[in-house]
User: Fold Glycerol-3-phosphate acyltransferase from Devosia psychrophila.
Amino acid sequence: MDVNLLYAAVFAYLCGSVPFGLLLTRAAGLGDIRNIGSGNIGATNVLRTGNRWLAAATLILDAAKAALPILVARYYWGENAAMLAAIFAFLGHCFPVWLNFKGGKGVAVMIGSLLALSWPVGLIFCAVWLVIAFAQKLSSLAALTAAATAPIFAFVVVNEWLAGAVAVMALMLFFQHRANIVRLMAGTEPKIGSEKTAK
Assistant:
């Protein structure tokens, strides 16, 4: 294995594993976000604290922690390193070593990764998410639909290599949303704006 790819992977994992949702809610005096709602450290669960600004900050920082190692890897080691960095930043967010490998679901990280890898694909991902979210009022369904279609757009807009990297991230996102998928199939998934929360 090229040692530069190893550098990219390790750096990206460490960046991705920074739990901004947990850090921000604690700093704001809101306690441990893992004890609220779904127990997730991502922006959607931070929103359940009632602090929209904190949720927005979590979203931006989670996206940035994926974009940063991708841009660094691309600058120093090339496009293959950038795509590998995207995958490992995603892994770091979903399975952070500091939190016993229990992290977020990866939506914000995927947005940041796609915008850094290919901004048109990233914007399409966001557009698909928004259309489904507004139409169905289901955040998880919006994320799953956007993730499922992202590899197709990556292939059309860029190439098969990016499509492959995006497909790996999409599969991880689906894995992290497995409980949501069960609830979607059962018709019990809480809608956006609902007071109901689920583990």
Remarks:
- Residues 3-186 form one domain.
- The chain has ten helices and no strands.
- The chain has a mean pLDDT of 91.
